[in-house]
Amino acid sequence: MARHNRRLTWLFDLDNTLHDASHAIFPAINLNMNAYIARVLQDCGQACDTATVDAARIAYWQRYGATLLGMIKHHQVKPDDFLREAHRFDDLTAMIRAERNLARILHRLPGRKILLTNAPRGYARAVLRHLGLHRHFARHVPIEAMRVHGQLRPKPSKPMLRKLLAAEGLRVRDCILVEDTVENLKGAKALGLGTAWVTQYLSTDSTRQALAGMRTTVRRTKRPVYVDVKVQSVGQLFRQLHRLR
């Protein structure tokens, strides 16, 4: 067990896994995205009313896994421009909420930790620093770094995961993906990774999820077959180690 723990690598999601992004950050991001999408549609001479913009943002998220990919494919936007505008906040630190003692929790978990997030680099770094978690991650992999053959391939892309594991020299059986999004866990399990589903920041209200531009999640009372462990919080992972490996 000691030898295995030294090989163990955790791939941690950020939003709604390590902190409560649904509280204030996601609503702000959605407003920022809507403003950006409205400008793009207006410049193209298309309808840019609230209903049309909402529908576009949600449809791109559901179809491509990230609104950004739909905007690139259908409107040829520059990724850096979209990510910068979507993550503008008056006071980001005031919007961050998370469980207590996260640094101690991560320190207690054996093995190496990598941040794997569909959020941009600057935002992810700011959140981790505010939470005091940056020193616990050996590497940060933000959405800008998720490229396969030069194309952006964020989670749940299996080719991106394969490329990451190969680049880091990791074996799939030594890796555990910790996520709030079941679609991402499903893809990881198909490759042979361990999977842990964090549920405390999720809403079971499908209407609220749709308005937020989120895919509908599996009911919290049901653990999908591709999820090894369902926990309410990251703080519960240590007690579930025996079930993950």
Q: Which features would summarize this protein structure in a list?
A:
single chain; 245 residues; alpha/beta; Rossmann fold; 6-stranded parallel sheet; 8 strands
In short:
This protein is α/β, with parallel strands linked by helices and 245 residues long. It has helices at residues 2-7, 25-43, 50-64, 67-75, 79-86, 92-95, 102-108, 121-131, 158-168, 182-191, 206-212, 241-244; strands at 9-12, 112-116, 139-141, 147-148, 151-152, 175-179, 194-198, 229-231. It holds the Pfam family Hydrolase.
N-to-C CA distance: 9 Å
Taking all residues together, what is the mean pLDDT? Answer: 90
Major sheet: arrangement of strands = 3-2-1-6-7-8
Report the top-level CATH class of the largest domain. Alpha Beta
| β-strand amount | 5-15%
Label the CATH architecture of the largest domain: 3-Layer(aba) Sandwich
Would you report the number of β strands?
Answer: 8
Point out poorly predicted stretches. Answer: 205-219
Query: Structural class per helix/strand content?
Result: alpha/beta
Total helices: the number is 12
Question: In one word, what is the shape?
Answer: globular
Over all CA atoms, what is the radius of gyration? 18 Å
InterPro entries: HAD-like_sf, HAD-SF_hydro_IA, HAD_sf, Pyr-5-nucltdase
Protein name: Pyrimidine 5'-nucleotidase
Organism: Oxalicibacterium flavum
